[in-house]
Amino acid sequence: MGRLKNKIEQLKFAIYCYKKGQDSRFVRTVKHLTDKNNLIYVESYGDKQNDDTVFFIDMEESHSGFFADHNRLLAMLYFADKYDMKPVVKYHKGYCYAEKQPVNGTTNPFEYYFEQPAGIGLKELKSFKRVFRSRKENSYEVNKLCDDPNGYTRSEEYLNEMARITAKYIRLNHIVKEKMDKEIMELLDVDQIGQNNSDYPNRKVLAVHVRGTDFKQNFNGHPVSVGTDEYLETTVRTFENGGYEKVFLATDDSKALEKYRKQFGDKVIFYKDVVRSDGNDTVMHSQMSRENHHYLLGYEVLRDMYTLAACDGLIAGLSQVSYAARIQKKSTGKEYSDLIILNKGINYHKKNNCPS
Q1: Which of 54, 78, 90, 317 is the most exposed place for a label (fewest CB within 10 A)?
Q2: pLDDT category, 190, cuts 50, 70, 90?
Q3: Do residues 247 and 208 make contact, with C-beta atoms less than 8 angstroms apart?
């Protein structure tokens, strides 16, 4: 239904453009907007005192997972940083992790979890003379850092630049940070966050991210699915050879968790409050009666990512979560002692496209 509605709107817009074809000013403007890196000028408040240029990152609704949107945000922040603009971020009510009521004192879903990157709130936008609004095309600038523009094939240069952007602009808000730090320290049994666990005797932890559920459907443009048994075999081998004491498992797949618990017993650690599924649909679409369910889904995958980044080694497939963990790790100036990415390539077909 959504796709049909979009097609109808596109047809209406095409008819509108056809009718405006004799309007030279309209034609020039449309042609100008085809420049993929063009900025749309929002407003000029000439009577205000602040001369800084602001980049209003007005994130379009994508119906994507938490880190698909987050990594897209990093690309927008990279664009703002390159052109020396102060970023202000807004996520909309259509964001998959948005709630109908305020969370953590805000109605902006981005601020549920994070502080504003430049310390400028949405209400402060009118205090600036120059405000530019983002376009999705602005995120294409970061593709120059990669040989392949596919979102699942990222270069080391890309990871290093996104780590720099993360260190400069991404900060958990104080509510989320306090809660998350406490939970990560309790799970990993460490005294502080931000260091390799090898700094703590007998607490060396191998992180594993197993992406299951909808990934098993092998959507077009997404990574070829890696089976749980292959993850498990790689984990056993790395665990034994690397001198690890524990395995931290982050997964959306309840069957994968069962296999790891059978193999590692109490040596596998995981968060018990995470929503998981044994089917082929993403947990992002799950419905539960718990308060702020959608917000908590975002919190849980965000906590998984930060925990993955806090461990010594990482085994993962190509996923937005594993890229985010690698970026977060690098942003602290650290590297994994063991990094194994199970990569079987990307699905390129038309049989099973990712649903919107």
Answers
A1: 90
A2: confident
A3: yes
Gap between the Cα atoms of 152 and 348, Å rounded: 12
Query: What letter represents residue 103's amino acid?
Result: V
Average predicted confidence (pLDDT) for the chain? 82
Q: Is 162 exposed, middle or buried (0-12, 13-18, 19+ CB in 10 A)?
A: buried
Between residues 299 and 45, which one has the greater pLDDT? 299
Residue-wise pLDDT for 85-137, tens only, equals 999 999 998 888 899 999 999 999 999 999 999 999 999 888 888 889 998 88
Question: Which of 82, 32, 92 lies closest to 57 in space, CA to CA?
Answer: 92
pTM over 0.85: no
In terms of pLDDT, which residue wins out, 15 or 237? 237
| Neighbouring residues of 245: CB distance < 8 A, sequence distance ≥ 6 | 202, 203, 204, 205, 267
Lowest mean pLDDT among 7-16, 82-91, 248-257, 276-285: 276-285
Give the span between the Cα atoms of 132 and 84, in whole angstroms: 12
Two structure tokens written together for 228: 């749980």
Q: What is the 3-state secondary structure (H, E, C) of the chain?
A: CHHHHHHHHHHHHHHHHHHCCCCHHHHHHHHHHCCCCCCEEEEECCCCCEEEEEEEEECCCCCCCHHHHHHHHHHHHHHHHHCCCEEEEECCCCCCCCCCCCECCECCHHHHHECCCCCCCHHHHHHEEEEEECCHHHHHHHHHHCCCCCCCCCCHHHHHHHHHHHHHHCCECHHHHHHHHHHHHHHHCCCCCCCCHHHCCCCCEEEEEECCHHHHHCCCCCECCCCHHHHHHHHHHHHHHHCCCEEEEEECEHHHHHHHHHHHHHHEECCCCCCCECCCCCHHHCCCCCCCHHHHHHHHHHHHHHHHHHCCEEEEECCHHHHHHHHHHHHCCCCCCEEEEECCCECCCCCCCCCC
